[in-house]
Prior knowledge:
Layout: H1 2-15, H2 19-33, E1 39-41, E2 47-49, H3 51-65, H4 67-74, H5 78-103, H6 107-133, H7 137-162, H8 171-177, H9 190-208, H10 217-233, H11 237-253, H12 255-275, H13 277-290, H14 298-302, H15 309-314, H16 318-331, H17 355-377, H18 387-403, H19 413-418
Antiparallel strand pairs: 1-2
Helix pairs in contact: 1-4, 2-3, 2-6, 2-7, 3-6, 5-6, 5-17, 7-10, 9-10, 9-11, 9-18, 11-12, 11-18, 16-17
Amino acid sequence: MSDVKMTYRSFLEKKCSGTFFTVLLYLLLFSYFYNLPVVSYSVKGTNELRLYDLLGILLFIKFFANFGLVIQQIKTIVFYKRFYEFMLYCTISILLTLFFAIINNRILVFAQAILYLYHMWVFFLGSFFLFYNLNTRKKYVRFVKFLILCIAIEMVLIILQNLGVVPFLWGQEYYLSYDGFMSGTLGPNKIVLGMFALISLGLIIAFLFYKEKLVPKLWVYSALGVIGIALLLSGSRTTYVGVLVFMGYFLFKSTARFFRFAILGGVFFAVIVVSSPQIVEKIGDVLEERVTYVIDGPEDVKDYEDFSGVYSELSTGRDKLHLMYVFHLIDNPGVIPLGQGFVNRMGVGASAHNIYLSLINEVGIVGLFLYLRWLFSYLIIKKRRIPSFQLALNGLVLGMLVTLFLENIYTSIGLYLLF
């Protein structure tokens, strides 16, 4: 039986190793960083297609051409299997979205849900095919170098934007909608930059403490430095919470490595203070604008009852959105078991910025269970030969479980699956 499994795996690896398909996967990774539109059209206002939207068509062709083999191999890898089961449930659930869209004469809601679902499938298939493409050390090292290079270039671009060297890249409409937030080519929302930086930080820390030399240490140190700066410049309070959880787990699980990392970070920050005070000033302005402006004294951080005080201010309305979703679910208990359809927010309006609540509303308790089962599956992976990756992955999962109370990771799920 084991030989049969290896034969299936080897066959799929061969299917995923051609030059054309390898280039396709590299372009897909690049598209996660280059999120600017490549095609514009009009269905619901001004709509845009990204590079991964177009590349996804080729991934689906590959998927259907090897359907039986792909499904068989998905079932052999626990985290792929569980995410696949969640996606299947979402795919079935979208029929409810269609039903409510028809009876409410809002068919464009269904079209939007289809696009979300398509993205989820594309990111999943890209990650799965990449898993089988990187079947030799040479391929893996080459891909890691490309990934670190993409991360470093993107973060440097964001730093240069904040220094006024590079302009805003997303056009006037996005500039007005997001107050000209500088996020390179990732996306104009703070959470996009923040979560990309957090996931990239976990990945780089894994390489930093990896025993074998996959890439030059100078690459790792440089990437770590620019990621840290971009993360602070993101102004994403959700991300800051995720970083604290990640670092707390890092400290608890590997104290010696944490202090080595802290010393390295301290030295790097001292260099930045001396060599580029403008960056330090910009970081200070961002933290003041996003966090410290409401904290005048110790009494502020103690005032937490009924979402009052500093917590209400820093939540920027999330407390009210949370309560709105809670009351919506109480008033509509029928949606709790199975939900009212994937990405169907009719009747409740804006996102709760809390994926636990929004998932119950969309795909019910069943969908929430399947989603959390996928996330927790990463915690049971044993990476005894590469403990630094186990450390980073577990820390990221715990960080995500906490930040899901504040946001969702639809925006960065592609990179998360890549990890």
